[in-house]
Amino acid sequence: MAIDKATVLRIAKLARIEIEDEATDGLADELNAILTWVEQLSDVDTEDIVPMTSVVAVKAPQRTDNVGEATPRDELLADAPEEEDGFFVVPKVIE
Amino acid sequence: MSALTDLTIAQSRIGLEKREFSARELTDAHIRACEDARELNTLVAETFDHALERADAADKRLAAGEDGLLEGVPIAVKDLYCTQGIHSTACSRILDGFEPPYESTVTENLWRQGAVMLGKANMDEFAMGSANVTSYYGNVINPWRRRSDNKPLVPGGSSGGSASAVAAHLALGAIGTDTGGSIRQPAAFCGIVGLKPTYGRCSRWGMIAFASSLDQAGPLTRTVEDAALMLSAMAGYDPKDSTSVNLQVPDYRAALTGDINGLRVGIPAEYRLDGMPAEIDTLWRQGVDWYRDAGAEIIDISLPHTKYSLPTYYIVAPAECSSNLARYDGVRYGLRETGGDLTHMYEKTRAKGFGAEVQRRIMIGTYVLSAGYYDAYYLKAQKVRTLIARDFEQAFAKVDVLLTPTAPSAAFAIGEKMDDPIAMYLNDIFTVPASLAGLPGISVPTGLSEDGLPLGLQLIGRPFEEGALMNAAQFLETVAQFTVRPPYLTGGV
Question: Would you call B362 and A51 a contact, using CB atoms and an 8 Å cutoff?
Answer without folding.
Answer: no
